[in-house]
Amino acid sequence: MSKSTHSPEIARITKVLTRLEKQSELERSGKLKLLHDDMMLAITPDTGRFLNILISAMNCTKILEVGTSVGYSTLCMALAFKQIQLLQRDFSGNIITIEKSNSKIQQAMNNFNEAGVEKNIQIVEGDALNILKKLNEKLNSRLNNDHKLFDFVFLDADKENLKEYFDLALSLLKKGGIIMTDNILFPEDYKTAMSEYLEYVKVNSKVYSVTVPIGYGEEIIYKIKD
Ligand SMILES: C[S@@+](CC[C@H](N)C(=O)[O-])C[C@H]1O[C@@H](n2cnc3c(N)ncnc32)[C@H](O)[C@@H]1O
User: Fold this and answer.
1) Given pLDDT bands bounded at 50, 70 and 90, which one contains residue 146?
2) pLDDT in tens, 192-223
3) Which residue's C-alpha comes closest to atom 25 of ligand 1?
């Protein structure tokens, strides 16, 4: 995510992304040894760019992320908001991102402040399943709830509850929106969970999807009907 730009706002986000990419590379290569719970476990830089392009091309204004970690993927999406703003001055976007680890939330907040995008991002602390259920209850309790729906959902937390996350995310997603799911192809440990997930998604008539072999493998799930 290192393309040069004349926008100081974009340069500010890119600087943080570059630092996080270096940290992530040390983690991946094993040069930086951390306990699993302290690892960033971020998407790869090419996946970040893919995510950024999708958000920009779709002109997304409302995004939901499950699994913030220290905010690398969130920043790739927030960068898209600033890029859209260069074309549409009055554009504004918002990301709700869910994370259970308080120490990662503290790091994410520092990263968002340093990048100058804290106003566009709301971090919700807690268990993703509970929070997604609450978001659904909130949506269902409103009569005119169209404006509450998300354009894009990124699923990147635990894999145990992935099918439930998908169902809950799908009802929060507007028609024409996308649910992107990470780790479809790697690591190998997720192979069984992910093939069960794909079977589950493929039989749902409200969506169709494709696996994109970038980074750890991304499922791009397109909602075609309510
Ligand atoms: C793979 S990392 C997310 C990486 C991030 N999306 C990125 O690319 O920069 C997964 C994160 O999900 C969080 N997580 C795992 N299970 C969760 C749950 N049930 N509820 C909320 N967060 C969870 C973990 O603490 C971890 O920080």
Assistant:
1) low
2) 999 999 999 999 999 999 999 999 999 999 99
3) 101
Give ligand 1 pocket residues (Cβ under 6 A).
41-43, 67, 69, 72-73, 98-101, 104, 127-128, 156-158
Regarding pTM above 0.85, the answer is yes
Atom of ligand 1 nearest to the CA of 37: 25
Q: Which residues pair with 142 in a beta bridge?
A: none
E-strand ranges in the chain read: 62-66, 94-99, 121-125, 150-155, 173-181, 207-212, 218-223
Give the domain ranges of the chain.
Answer: 8-223
Q: Could you identify the atom of ligand 1 that is nearest to the CA of residue 72? A: 9
Distance (Å, rounded) from C-alpha 49 to C-alpha 29?
Answer: 21
CA distances, 8 to each of 58, 86, 188 (Å)? 24, 12, 40
Residue nearest to atom 26 of ligand 1 (CA): 69
For the chain, the straight-line distance linking the first and the last C-alpha, in angstroms and rounded, comes to 35
- With 60 as the cut, is the pLDDT of residue 4 above it? no
Is domain 8-223 in CATH 3.40.50.1110, yes or no?
no
From 158, 163, 165, 214, give the residue whose CB has the most ligand 1 atoms within 8 Å, as the site to mutate.
158
